[in-house]
């Protein structure tokens, strides 16, 4: 279970968080190792890293979906214990109920809200407009494109007016053009709502386009390798020299030679004209 060191008084504080999974047969699989990160209220932070580095696991801990970890996670000085309306969550798949229309799918998130029926109706209408789905209130999921369905998921994550929105690869399953449009839309929503956003993504360009800071993680077990500041004004131009420089700086973090666990037999000197170094691109 989580321990309780002194929390940060402002924003989100992740303090020495480690997470293990028990394997069949009694073995221990370390997933996260001593993660420490502070996110100021209103910041947009992206977490990037290779598959298996614990990005989504960390997001689940922040969301309060898993309490089995060491260390502590707090927001504005209060320790996170379980899920809460102050934290919205958007997954890679929209996870819409097929028998409910757009407005009804968003309304699901308000079941535990203290708003009255009229206030709920107003909040749903406002967030449908916020994500650009005006006129589709009564459409069902099978009548929506993938991008539209994800807009519904984002509206559902925002309708409770959370102070933190957690996004787990929300555009990963979309085509490149739709993904680019929704990135711009998400940036607009962040500017409008002025809330903290934490995005998990494999897309380095997406991270640099949206974020104030990019957290680079490395796997086995997951650790923070580096935090890259992105001091660029919004809206951002992906072809701007400063943007490209920061993007390439982050990408270089993944260009590391792979160290094989078991060295293969060495070939005869005559078999190779030049030495070959194995490399992997992790994104």
Task: Describe this protein's structure.
- The chain has 283 residues and is an alpha/beta fold.
- A hairpin with a 4-residue loop joins strand 9 and strand 10.
Radius of gyration: 21 Å
Main β sheet profile? 6 strands, mixed
Range of helix content: 25-40%
Number of DSSP strand runs: 12
Number of helices, counting only DSSP H or I runs of 4 residues or more: 7
H/E element order? EEEHEEEHHHEHEHEEHEE
Distance, first to last CA: 32 Å
Strand order of the largest sheet: 6-7-8-3-9-10
Identify the notable features of this structure and list them briefly.
disordered C terminus; four-stranded antiparallel beta sheet; alpha/beta; 283 residues
Provide the fold topology.
Blueprint: E1 12-22, E2 28-39, E3 44-49, H1 55-63, E4 70-75, E5 78-79, E6 87-90, H2 102-107, H3 117-130, H4 146-158, E7 164-168, H5 176-193, E8 196-201, H6 204-210, E9 213-218, E10 223-229, H7 241-252, E11 255-257, E12 279-281
Parallel strand pairs: 3-8, 3-9, 6-7, 7-8
Antiparallel strand pairs: 1-2, 1-4, 4-5, 9-10, 11-12
Helix pairs in contact: 3-4, 6-7
């Amino acid at each position: 279970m989580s321990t309780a060191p002194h929390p940060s008084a402002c924003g989100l504080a992740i303090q020495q968080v480690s997470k293990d999974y028990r394997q069949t047969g009694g073995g221990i699989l370390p997933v996260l190792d001593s993660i420490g990160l502070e996110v100021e209220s209103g910041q947009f932070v992206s977490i990037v890293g290779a598959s298996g580095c614990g990005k989504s696991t960390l997001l689940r801990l922040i969301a309060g979906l898993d309490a089995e970890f060491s260390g502590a996670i707090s927001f504005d000085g209060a320790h996170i214990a379980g899920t809460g309306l102050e934290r919205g969550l958007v997954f890679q798949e929209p996870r819409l109920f097929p028998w409910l229309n757009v407005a009804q799918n968003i309304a699901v998130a308000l079941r535990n809200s203290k708003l009255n029926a009229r206030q709920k109706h107003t909040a749903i209408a406002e967030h449908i407009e916020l994500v650009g789905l005006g006129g589709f209130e009564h459409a069902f999921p099978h009548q929506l494109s993938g991008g539209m369905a994800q807009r519904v998921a984002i509206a559902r994550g925002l309708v409770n007016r959370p102070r933190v929105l957690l996004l787990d690869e929300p555009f990963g399953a979309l085509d490149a053009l739709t993904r680019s449009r929704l990135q711009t839309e998400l940036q607009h929503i962040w500017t409008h709502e002025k809330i903290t956003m934490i995005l998990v993504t494999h897309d380095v360009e997406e991270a640099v386009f949206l974020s104030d800071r990019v957290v680079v993680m490395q796997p086995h077990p997951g650790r923070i390798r580096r935090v890259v500041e992105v001091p660029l004004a919004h809206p951002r131009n992906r072809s701007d020299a400063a943007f490209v420089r920061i993007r390439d700086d982050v990408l270089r973090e993944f260009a590391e030679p792979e160290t094989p666990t078991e060295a293969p037999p060495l070939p005869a000197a005559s078999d190779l004209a030049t030495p070959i170094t194995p490399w992997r691109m992790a994104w």
